[in-house]
């Protein structure tokens, strides 16, 4: 015996919804079509599945046993069908994105929340990590989209670069707080919290001090802009901080000042070359790239 799935689906709908009328409405077919499918199933199985009592179909004990056996299968296919509809309507799928820590505290969660509105079945894979690891993940296909710091050292990655200006955060009661703009001479011998000796922001700040003949005094170093800002709050020194970290912070015992000459942070959005983006991934890029352009001071295209 082999019964087509549509017959099982009609049988399942009748029991679940109680009447042929309701089952037909659920499946989007006519009542005669439902009745015909049920008759075919009874012939194929050689089982009496319903008693006709006062114009209603009452399931037999055999029908209940059969229903229990096919319930998971039918619901599973319904779930698959709904997933197809959701994908067609672009309300489902998975957003896979990895970012540097700076973007993870406020900017990216806000962008993900905005993107998820109206997509109730969207699942999200979101991680923050160091730039080299993000490049490895995107290359390996573990994440579809990555945002990290330059340089890009992995082969086979499409690159969308953005140049971001940092600002100087200083303790609220620092002697230089009266100045609206800071420069190396004003901060001569002022203690700094840096992002490691080889970080691009540290190198560029050091070069600016050296050019002006000022002493770049390093008091401490850390691996995250967020950590550096917290040390500034404690009055331990100044730090060059990216706008994403500043925007995500609640404020506190520090002030933010423009620094001259400008110290830039180069970031890049990466995707795997030769691997087509999902519809969801492309739509997220269409949202987030313009937002990054608004923040960036200079952009080399998408």
Automatic annotation (TrEMBL):
It comes from the Bacteria. SUPFAM superfamilies: Periplasmic binding protein-like II, Winged helix' DNA-binding domain. Residues 1-60 form the HTH lysR-type domain. Keywords: DNA-binding, Transcription, Transcription regulation. The keyword 4Fe-4S does not apply. InterPro entries: LysR_HTH_N, LysR_subst-bd, WH-like_DNA-bd_sf, WH_DNA-bd_sf. Gene3D superfamilies: 3.40.190.290, Winged helix-like DNA-binding domain superfamily/Winged helix DNA-binding domain (1.10.10.10). Belongs to the LysR transcriptional regulatory family. PANTHER family: TRANSCRIPTIONAL ACTIVATOR PROTEIN LYSR (PTHR30427:SF1). This is LysR family transcriptional regulator. It comes from Albidovulum litorale.
